[in-house]
Amino acid sequence: MLTYITNECMPLEKMLARVQKQHPGDSYLLVKKAYEFAEKAHAGQVRKSGEPYFIHPASVASILTDLMIDAPTIAAGFLHDTVEDCQCVSLDTIRQEFGEEVALLVDGVTKLDKLDFTDREEQKAESLRKMILAMSKDIRVVIIKLADRLHNMRTLRYQPEDRQKAIAGETLDIFAPLAHRLGMNAVKQELEDLSFKYINPDAYHDIAQKVGLRRAEREENIRMVISELSEKLEAQGIHYEMDGRPKHLYSIYKKMTEQNKTFDQIYDLIAVRVIVDTVQDCYTVLGIVHTLWNQIPGRFKDYISVPKGNMYQSLHTTLIGGRKMPFPFEIQIRTWEMHRIAEFGVAAHWRYKEGGGPEGDLDNKLYWLRQILDWQNETRDSKEFIDSLKTDLFSDEVLLFTPKGDIVSMQRGSTPIDFAYRIHSGVGNHCVGAKINGRIVQLDTQLETGDRVEIITSTSSKGPSMDWLKVVKTQQAKAKIRQFFKRELHGENVVKGREILEHEAKRRGVSLPALTKPEYYDPILKRYAFQELDDIYGAVGYGGIASAYVISRLLDEQRKDEAQALPKVVETTQQELQKQLGKPTHGVYVKGESGILVRFAKCCNPVPGDEIVGYITRGRGVTVHKADCPNVSGDGGEQERMVEVNWANTEGGSFNASLNIIAYDHVSLLGELALSIGNMGVPIMAVSAKRDEKKKTSVITMVVQVTSREQLDKVIKNLHNRSDIIEVYRGTT
Question: Which positions are catalytic?
């Protein structure tokens, strides 16, 4: 049988011997050099366990060796923390000592700790984005990261309790699904079980105890199955190896929660794996198995003829043994090559050759990596990027067929439009209809596993509809639809956006050309990752940015510039400001108006410190919005109803703000959150909560009363630091 991933730090001599055996030549010398370099660089550093820090990179390298990966990757495993944690080591140092290949791998897994981020969540998101992009260029980056995360999870007991839950939650949300996508089943299962242990320790220990109590019974059942099947296989002259194993704990827990079953109702707790030499032998064994025991209807899966999206191949069948063995059990049948890939996934595929790259059509099998590149540029917000990664990339899959019989793996819930863009951007842009299994269907039809999908295209098509954005499921399709409108209608959007901004500038009594100096609009370029002024015009043109926000920012930059140019700063008195802008109402000055009704928009809940604009409503005075609120971006006609507003002196005032909180559910959750916020001196005005039984999480909407944006940000940051919090963001009241 294949060697499973060890739970120990491998001695150097053993590691070098393994590398020499797996990769003949002198590549082992690179591993030896990396070992010696990392040991010296980390000298004197200790882990939270009190052990020398070098044990960690050595353990990561050991895991990579077990995965039978190449020497440069193992070397990078030894070195992966040196740039981040050792002041004397830079990326240039790694490049000089070990070459460009190793340096790129080390850089790909190095976190962005030294950059300036607004909060820890943004830092984590951007570090993950960096790793994902590096992984799209070289898949070995994420293999190192998974090995790193696996050892950290094995030693998580030394972390404080709040860090344990936070790290375990991130592992279960991101890294275990990533291992699954890469077909690294052994890594995925261990990451899931370790995460499960810290996130829900009561359920973990309960299931572990129940599995342990049945150990003797389970082993006897496995022995009976193996004994009876072995006799038949030997009679047929089939060369095989066979073993039995229990289901891993997290998979049992998922089945219990998703199917609303008790432990005693989960019957197929054991699986017997048969490994043979050829594909023909696989189907021969399947025939023998079905003559020995009764097949449970609907529980046969042929992943050999139709492989999973993560390259997994095997035959699965669930059986019941009659009077002699009146218990359900699963049998998995595969070849040795299939088994190697099933356990180690993409790592098993990697055969690094001179001139480079993985063997075979691995790039085609990892198409989902290119999906990330398609939409990551569209997703500038860090939170949105993480959410998209979780919901789109790691969701359940359906297996579909093209008219030529090719298999396409897609996210569950995908539509024919998603399928069209999965094939090619041109197919999606010219799609006018679709057939599923030979029948014409609507474009919003959800696809199911086994569907044969045919996309009907037309060269006369004008392209996608904006309404498609409400229909499609995948981020890839959404990104390509947006790209179409930006590219195809860019000129129109630029012209339209410039006209809207000129109109808004004129309404405010200024000239647009006077505001469009590079030093004025550069902050907007940086915020939205735009390249040039036309990008701002285009975004205003298609409604991506509110014109009032753009002009307000440009005016702010102009005022700063003019203030710096003055030899003496003349302070505007409160009375003069009031004369210019009118009387303050509810802490807000409305330019040219006094005594007007002012209310705050509930779509964005502005608080002092937010950039704001006013919108003149019909009969209800002025509604104050955040300047970047999408509800104040409209066509040129709506801009007539925009008015300049500014915060007055709001000292002593209070403002309602709504927070949406997603958290792991537990008995004292609401009480602890209330106490945490109360200790900051922030009153809670209203609370509502909804529990997700399936995910064991709660979604809480909480209205708090704050004096400023700064105070609200502190509340959000404080909540983010809790181990039971998944996400916190501003919502609506």
Answer: 84-85
